[in-house]
Amino acid sequence: MKYLVMECHAGYAVLMDEASRFVRAANLHYEIGQTVTDPVLMTETQPRIRRSTVIRIAAAAACLLLLSGAGLHAYLSKHRASSSVRLCSEVEFEMQLNSAGEVIRISSSTESGQAMLDSYRPDQKDMLAVVSELLTMQREQGYLPEGETVSIYIDSKDEKKFEEYKTGLEAELPKLNLQVSVQEQTPDAPAEAVTPAGEPDKEPSGEEPPKPGREHDGPAEALHTDHTKPEPPVPPAEPAVTGTRPHGPGPARKTEAGSSVTLPEPENGSKPEPEVPGQQVIAPDDPAAREPDGPLPPNTHPEPAGPPPPPVFDDEPAAEHTAPAVPPEPEAAGTEASAPETPDETAPHPELREEPTLPELHEEPSLPEAPAPRPEPPLLNSQVSESPRV
Amino acid sequence: MDSDVQRLPARVSEAKTDSQAADALIADYMPFIRAETARFLKRQPDDGDDELSIAMFAFYESIRCYSRLRGSFLKFASVQIKSRLIDFYRREKRSRGQISLYAADDGQQPLLETLPDTADAYAEMELRDATRQEIEELTAQMQQFGVSLPDISENSPKQRRTLEICQRAVCYARSHPVLLEEFLRTKRIPLQKLAEGAEVERKTLERHRQYLVAVLLICTNGYEILRGHIMQVLRKGDQP
Fold this sequence. Notes:
The structure holds two protein chains of two kinds. By secondary structure, chain A is of the alpha+beta class. Chain A has helices spanning 51-79, 111-118, 127-140, 159-172, 189-193, 219-228, 238-244, 275-280, 287-290, 338-341, 357-362, 382-386; strands at residues 3-8, 13-17, 22-25, 35-36, 83-88, 92-97, 103-107, 149-156, 179-184, 252-254, 260-262. In chain A, the strands form three sheets. In chain A, strands 7-6-5-8-9 form a five-stranded mixed β-sheet. Chain B is mainly alpha-helical. Chain B has 15 helices and no strands. In chain B, α3 (30-41) crosses α4, α4 crosses α5 and α8 packs across α13 (209-219). Chain B is globular and about 60 Å long. The chains are: A alpha+beta, B mainly alpha. The interface between A and B is large, with 36 and 50 residues.
């Protein structure tokens, strides 16, 4: 390629090639207007950055990245809510917990709760401490009597965290003389959690009515029942009792919540034989408990103002049933036929009279023969009657 | 001398953009350039030696490429001069088996005078003078546009694709004399029309505005020799 010398300087010359490209080349004694063919062209190289500089910049960038990543992780683990705890008592609170179990946010949907939160700051305390302090504040302000059941709903994706929180709450709250019911938060739980704790406890997972053969709930439930039943059970109506007593033992019994549990229908007519009343009839173990009642009428409820009796089943141990739950079977009831047929008149309900099984039980021919074991009330307990008694 | 050394980085940085400052710096450091050349040649260089021109060119390259990260400028220039001289020596080594036309034969007569002279030296001298006049006229006209040849050499496209884009725009302007007249009248390049007509990106033309000024001026009347030199490019525009 030919180059035309356009300009000459001391150290270089400006050349123009046939492609109209202007280049700089060594001025090998060129003259302007001269045509050259093999010039020494300039190769402009940009100043290279030292490798050490690159390494320093890369190391600084890596350190910065690591620090920012660690900081972000620390921030997220400290300030991001990983689980939530909903405290439902008279005053309702909802706490957001970080991964360390510390309370990062707390809110209340009730005015009294918001008033309490105005003077309280969790300041990333432990969840158990915050719950204890909140319950203590409620107690001091009269919202929470002793023995009250507190429902706590935990929403955590981590099962271990859920178990940890549950265990901690169940271990901590009894120290405050409170009963605790810890459950997992479900989508429909908040709607139920809004109801005050004084209402009957109907939790999502369910305090289902006890089924036959199932162990009775512990004392916590009994205490809970006491507070969740503000009204005493309705005493049985007089006509209902008179109508049901001749029909033998009712297959259904009233539960603590007013619902009835229907027992299996005796298919065989020979079932309510003399030993049957001994198994079904729940009588107070302590005769002294019956003494104040005295010779009550056979259909009179012994404690109209007391709490309803827990559900009683045939196969349950008699020691677990409280005496007041079962009306005493008066010996002076008179009729021999009615005494064995009503072993459990704890809560006669009008619906029970409509049970189709009653006529069948009424037709039992052997029922009048039952009064033989009646004179000994302690023997009415099923468990006691099974064991040889001296 | 100490003050000159202290001022050297500032002068180098000034000479990077100013061609006159570069020429002055080269003139001031000619003893240094000669010393480096003598160290390579193992003798004192003459003013007509190509090695001295290569050394001066290497010194100018050092001015262009120098940065403070490279240490002392004189050491950097020394290495640069030595590298350029080595490259030049290897390049000349390829033609070492050839005989120079100016070498004397046995009869002490230059070999060039023994060969039949087919070229018309007179015509060549006239052509060179005419070419120089055109170049001087072009340089003067470019000054009206605010550009110089060293600036154009820096602004000239380096990559083939960019050069083709600029050549396409020049060919479009040459096929539309109205654009060239507008360019001479307004002394502004009609970039929008060139970009739309040649179907090239305007941004690429804007980056090489000074180069386009020089080539568009060559394409106008009055620069026949220069236009003939770049006819290879201009023929592309004549093709459909």
